[in-house]
Automatic annotation (TrEMBL):
Superkingdom per UniProt: Bacteria
EAL domain segment(s): 23-275
Secretion signal span: none
From-to range in the entire protein, with total length: 389 to 664 of 673
Source organism of this protein record: Marinicrinis lubricantis
Protein name per the record: EAL domain-containing protein
Amino acid sequence: AKSLGKNQYCVYKEEMGFHEVRKLELEKDLQRALEDQQFFIEYQPKWNVKTNSLWGFEALLRWKHPRMGIVSPNEFIPIAEETGFIIPLTRWTLEEACRQCKVWNTAGIAQSVSVNLSTRLFQTDHLIDWVQDALEKVGLEPCLLELEITESMVIYDIQDIVRQLQCLREMGIKVSMDDFGTGYSSIGLLDRLPIDTLKLDRLFTYDLDSPSKRAIIHAIVLMAEQLHLDVIAEGVEHEEHIAFLTQLGCFVMQGYYYGKPMKQDIIMTWVNQKQS
Ligand code: C2E
Ligand code: CA
Ligand code: CA
Ligand code: CA
């Protein structure tokens, strides 16, 4: 930063801390990162323990910053949401994930890919067109695409989001509720939201020693059954997690125990190993 000279940094105030300066830099660098191809996607498997088979993959975005190295989505997604850059970024992610999913399919791995969506996408009036464009461009069947939304996004304009979700589901796309159990009024929303899957937040898996957490998971699983929803547990890291979760009736899992997020070029090898 020192070598760049005074003028370039005139926007920075003296009293700004490290985090604020870094945020401003990232915000500025985001604009070029897409055209410079600094983003890539890692795919994390979801595993069905009942059938002992692959359930699908989640697309997780990564930014390889030329100076700072890998920046976590926890850091750059909020910035991208603030600046609106999340829109072109998500369109890229959607298309890239669909293209990858098509490659797997052609190779005989008929598994879905899920993409995380921010609220901002639902406020554009173009989401449905963009999703359709991505599918058509790569020739992927809609039933192989899943969109992950969070509870917190729905508090803005539930009717409008319900309408868009209905439309997406009519196209054959799946919808899942991410981080379930950490937001607001989760249970009331389930009645109104057209979704297919609940993803139990990692916090529940993390704390399975607690009898109250176990009671909550059990209740969620029973409720999900009645509502014809699938339940996926996130953050499964240890064998004890699996034992607890299956006892509670949850059979689809995602977490480091089964597989970390992986670059696209090692996915095929990973799948072949798992299947042999
Ligand atoms: P998420 O959607 O809840 O994704 C799960 C996060 O948990 C991922 O972090 C994943 O790497 C991590 N994880 C998976 N298994 C385990 C485990 O067993 N233990 C632990 N400790 N962690 C595990 P990641 O990749 O850093 O992503 C963080 C968040 O960034 C995501 O949380 C999601 O909210 C957001 N994100 C990532 N990609 C995108 C994207 O393309 N669009 C949007 N809007 N958000 C994204
Ligand atoms: Ca997710
Ligand atoms: Ca999650
Ligand atoms: Ca999360």
